[in-house]
């Protein structure tokens, strides 16, 4: 007996593999792509059959229908022609063969009715096209307000010659409902995918989905297709497997009983599922009651497709041995459990939700536009209200409420100046007068007289740590002292918070300095630096090129780390992590220092006092090399003596 054939596709119902040997194919020497656009969905599908009928075997033939194209255009700004269907075809192999095949593919596409084709062997362009295809599923969720991608219909397959008929059938079924059922997939093998785009809080949409999805599988089976092409059956597709393999279910059960008499291997799946079509595995039958800080974020939670793109950029999960609850999508799922009442608030929930640096890179990366940092802040507020605040956080907030700064310093000194440009000092620079005086000296050198306003925290720490009620009380005191007016902030977090929370017209000091230095360049000083973008400056205030312009204008050569600008990694000091988990903070900061060392720069420059603090500590701990860490105020003060 070939037991491996029993096990492959059995989805754990017969046993588990303890060892798998993989054959690795060599990387192709050349790749090229053809993208073809069609004004008719059947023509799109027929083109697939025509390409395969020519005897060609492209490495990829991916199909996307009109709704999918619109979604990736909206999410990723690809600028693709919005039409009925699109094929992304890739060939690989020897360079001479690749050029011939991609040309032949293009001719077949044109003969099949493509109104536009594009050819490319540029790796960057191909990566962009593939990025759009891969991010299509989560991108669907931003296509229409209040609609989200629901994983119901999935990965059916039909004979290649029936791909056109399957696409037509899917389109006809979808057009009969208020929900949308876009098709896409690996067309070269007839493996088509669909998702249901709907409002998960609308009971009528669920009724439509429960009617439409079985009709789609009926259409697939009528075309000689199969229930699944690659993803498996599990529970949600079991009823359709029973219809497809009605004559084999009894035999499948017999094999299961023979190999697993105690029924301990993934029970009640595939052939043993008897409870009909299940739709609400991820969604509640009723929308949770609107109470608590997390409730307003419920739609974002159910919009998350768990695609995992956020995991690739999250600094937290990269030092947490892969546990998903450390990732943004894990925190979204955790928050969903809290809102629906499935997960009670306790210390374990608090630990995970406070183990986040709120760097915002997940929000930048999310094709569905889910603002996980804001969701985490709401979850923290709910935890604080329920009594799960950390003692270190309470002490910090008490300091702000009592003294107006995070340090509890009742006599914080404020430099006396007589200029016109209002400077908001905040906590960090109120406690680092040497840094403050350097920036004030720089402003003076550039002809900007400063008038320092200090003595009060902006309130940012309370916002990120979840002390929302304390913040609302504190804001009254703050607004009694400060009115909306043009001002300059040395601290990135203060600048961002004053703008977003209070609506103040604030500039960061780098914007002011860059404007004054523009057009002035000093000779090269022969020094090589790398610049670390702080999260609040780069992703928050979009201040990215200004510090680089300043450094180059002062004669420095700037070399970039692997992750830079809007894709910069966190220093390990954001989101209150320094008062929550110093081990995680250290792991993140040392990883960033390692990245800086790889540039070969002698100095790492940043414009954030927190970044400077944690990166300098990390630089002293890393044993693989040496690099100095300086704040930009030091560089400016030295250059403009």
Topology:
Elements: H1 3-7, E1 30-38, H2 41-53, E2 60-65, H3 66-76, E3 85-93, H4 95-111, E4 116-120, H5 123-134, H6 136-139, E5 148-150, H7 163-174, E6 183-186, E7 191-194, E8 196-198, H8 203-222, H9 238-244, H10 249-259, H11 298-303, H12 328-340, H13 347-354, H14 361-365, H15 372-385, H16 391-403, E9 421-424, H17 426-430, H18 433-445, E10 450-453, H19 460-465, H20 468-481, E11 487-489, H21 492-502, E12 506-508, H22 509-517, E13 528-532, H23 535-540, H24 545-553, E14 557-558, H25 582-597, E15 603-606, H26 609-621, E16 628-631, H27 632-639
Parallel strand pairs: 9-10, 9-11, 11-12, 13-14, 13-15, 15-16
Antiparallel strand pairs: 1-3, 1-4, 2-3, 2-6, 5-8, 6-7
Task: Describe this protein's structure.
The chain has 641 residues and is an alpha/beta fold. The protein has four domains: 30-266, Vanillyl-alcohol Oxidase, Chain A, domain 3, CATH 3.40.462; 295-385, Fumarate Reductase Iron-sulfur Protein, Chain B, domain 2, CATH 1.10.1060.10; 405-513, Rossmann fold, CATH 3.40.50; 521-639, Rossmann fold (3-Layer(aba) Sandwich). It contains 27 helices and 16 strands. A six-stranded antiparallel β-sheet has the order 4-1-3-2-6-7, sandwiched between helices. Strands 10-9-11-12 form a four-stranded parallel β-sheet, sandwiched between helices. Helix 21 links the parallel strand 11 (487-489) and strand 12. The termini are far apart.
């Amino acid at each position: 007996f070939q037991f491996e054939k029993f096990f492959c596709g059995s989805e754990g119902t017969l046993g588990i593999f303890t060892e798998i040997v993989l054959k690795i194919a060599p990387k192709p020497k050349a790749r090229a792509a053809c993208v073809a656009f069609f004004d008719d969905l059947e023509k799109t599908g027929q083109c697939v059959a025509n390409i395969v009928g020519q005897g060609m075997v492209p490495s990829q033939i991916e199909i996307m229908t009109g709704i999918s194209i619109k979604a990736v255009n909206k999410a990723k700004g690809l600028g693709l022609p919005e039409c009925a269907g699109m094929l992304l075809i890739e060939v690989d192999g020897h360079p001479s063969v690749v050029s011939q095949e991609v040309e032949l593919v293009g001719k077949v596409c044109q003969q099949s009715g493509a109104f536009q084709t594009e050819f490319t062997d540029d790796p960057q362009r191909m990566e962009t096209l593939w990025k759009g295809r891969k991010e299509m599923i989560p991108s669907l969720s931003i296509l229409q307000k209040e609609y989200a991608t629901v994983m119901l219909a999935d990965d059916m397959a039909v004979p290649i010659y029936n791909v056109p008929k399957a696409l037509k059938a899917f389109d006809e079924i979808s057009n009969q409902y208020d929900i949308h059922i876009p098709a896409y997939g690996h067309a070269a093998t007839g493996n088509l995918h669909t998702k249901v785009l709907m409002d998960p809080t609308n009971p009528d949409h669920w009724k439509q989905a429960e009617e439409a999805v079985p009709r789609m599988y009926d259409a697939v089976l009528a075309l000689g297709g199969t229930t699944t092409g690659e993803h498996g059956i599990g529970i949600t597709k079991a009823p359709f497997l029973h219809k497809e393999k009605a004559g084999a279910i009894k035999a499948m059960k017999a094999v299961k009983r023979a190999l697993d008499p105690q029924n301990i291997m993934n029970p009640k799946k595939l052939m043993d599922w008897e409870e009909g079509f299940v739709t609400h595995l991820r969604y509640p039958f009723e929308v949770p009651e609107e109470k608590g800080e997390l409730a307003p974020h419920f739609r974002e939670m159910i919009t998350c497709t768990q695609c995992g793109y956020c995991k690739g950029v999250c600094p937290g999960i990269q030092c947490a041995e892969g546990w998903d609850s450390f990732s943004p999508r894990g925190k979204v799922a955790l928050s969903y459990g809290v809102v629906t009442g499935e997960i009670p608030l306790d210390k374990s929930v608090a630990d995970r939700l406070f183990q986040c640096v709120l760097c915002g890179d997940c929000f930048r990366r999310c094709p569905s536009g889910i603002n996980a940092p804001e969701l985490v802040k709401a979850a923290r507020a709910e935890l604080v209200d329920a009594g799960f605040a950390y003692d270190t956080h309470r002490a910090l907030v008490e300091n702000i409420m009592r003294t107006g700064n995070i340090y509890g310093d009742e006599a914080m000194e404020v430099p006396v100046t007589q200029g016109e440009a209002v400077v908001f000092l905040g906590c960090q620079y109120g406690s680092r007068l040497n840094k403050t005086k350097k920036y004030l000296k720089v402003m003076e050198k550039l002809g900007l007289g400063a008038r320092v306003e200090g003595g009060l925290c902006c309130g940012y720490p309370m916002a990120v740590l979840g002390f929302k009620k304390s913040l609302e009380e504190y804001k009254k005191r703050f607004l009694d002292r400060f009115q909306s007016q043009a001002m300059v902030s040395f601290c990135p977090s203060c600048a961002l918070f004053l703008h977003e929370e209070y609506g103040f017209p604030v500039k960061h000091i780098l914007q002011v300095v860059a404007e004054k230095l523009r057009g002035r360049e000093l000779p090269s000083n022969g020094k090589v630096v790398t610049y670390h973008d702080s999260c609040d400056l780069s992703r928050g205030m979009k201040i990215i090129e200004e510090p680089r312009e300043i450094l180059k204008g002062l004669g420095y050569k700037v070399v970039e780390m692997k992750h830079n600008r809007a894709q910069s990694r966190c220093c390990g000091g954001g989101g209150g992590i320094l008062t929550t988990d110093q081990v995680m903070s250290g792991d993140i900061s040392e990883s960033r220092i390692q990245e800086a060392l790889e540039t070969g720069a002698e100095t790492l420059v940043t414009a954030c006092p927190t970044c400077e603090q944690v990166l300098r500590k990390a630089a002293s701990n890393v044993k693989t090399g040496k690099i100095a860490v300086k704040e930009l105020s030091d560089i400016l003060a030295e250059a403009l003596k």
